[in-house]
Amino acid sequence: MTGGAPVERAQTVGRQAIDVARSLLKTALSYSPWVPTRGPHRADEIDAAFLSRVFRERAPGAVAEAAEDVGGHAGTTNRRRIEVTWNASGRDAGLPEMLFVKSTPLSAKNRTMVGALDMAVHEVDFYRTARADLGEIAPTCYFASADPGARFTLVLQNLGDGFEHPPFRGERGVRHARGMMHTLAELHATFWESPRFRNDLRWAKVQTRRSGLAYLAYTQRRARVKILRSQEYELPPAARRLGEILNGRQREIYKLFEQGPLTLLHGDCHVGNSYAHADGRAALLDWQVAFRGPHIRELSYFICSALAPELRREHEEPLVRLYLDALRDRGVEPPNFDQAWERYRFFLLEAWDANVITVLWPGLQKQHHIERTLGYANAAVADHATDEVVARALNRGCI
After folding, report:
1. pLDDT (tens digit per residue) in 282-296
2. CATH number of the domain at 43-157, out of 3.30.1490, 3.30.200, 1.10.3680, 3.40.50?
3. What is the pTM of this model?
4. Which residues lie closer than 8 Å to 284 by C-beta, 6 or more apart?
């Protein structure tokens, strides 16, 4: 016998303890009404003088003469649109006259979630390190800054006229899903087993090393317990069994997420975080939970959210095949279809789990939206016997 297993368990316990301590510190900072910051962290700090400084390297001589908040909404983060009036140099340079600003959550509750999971930090990291390699599949970022306590600011391209946003219904939804298969293939092929995960992309951790995992696991478990006990939400037997397996063996399941090949994942690529260019090309916003993981996870997550059960049943197999072909076109050799299909069925657990957590955090989504998307996820895990696929993967130690 060797001492490898006890050592590994001790290391795991040690990492968990450190993660809990960090989460508690981040929670305390997030609740605090004030923390020291290096950069702006409120939308009202994005004024004409600030924007002049941000854009002066892009357009020497450009000066913002006015910057007006023209509306937005507060949720997980504070989101505002800023209308900018430029001087002649700025207009001649074609600087944007409308900007989209994401900044610090207004409520302590939302700051807690954003801070504990480093959501703002990771989105800033994404724009600083990965965005330049991804063409037009994500918004352009003009300024990015993050500080402790979920204090941050992103000044982004405004996706107004010339872009299409959800809902994408019927055949338009199917076309958007096809476009998303190419977009996900572009993202995944770009960072496929990239050596950069040891350098500038080291912020993109694997599942069991993600920031705030202890907080996330606790929150997800609470959500599953709540829905399993609830009389309000009807769960098919497969979904109920899946919730019980997740609550009993969550960490073992998460370790399976670390079996290669691994790449950069968007992490929350439901259809609501997508948009389309005028020519139909699909793109993704809200990169705040990006991490390093298994590529097929994104397909399960997106398709389950994007297509009603009847359309999903008809189109999901062709969509998976389209994605695999798109990877090959980009020089990546993916798993064969049977392997990919088994993993697609497995990772529907993430689509289901992400919807369950909205039951615990009702402010994240409107009630009718929660019921619809949870219904989509329930149908998917029932159709694919995801509980049986997960149990089989646990028994053999691989997906």
Report:
1. 999 999 999 999 999
2. 3.30.200
3. 0.93
4. 137, 138, 183, 187, 266, 269, 273, 274, 275
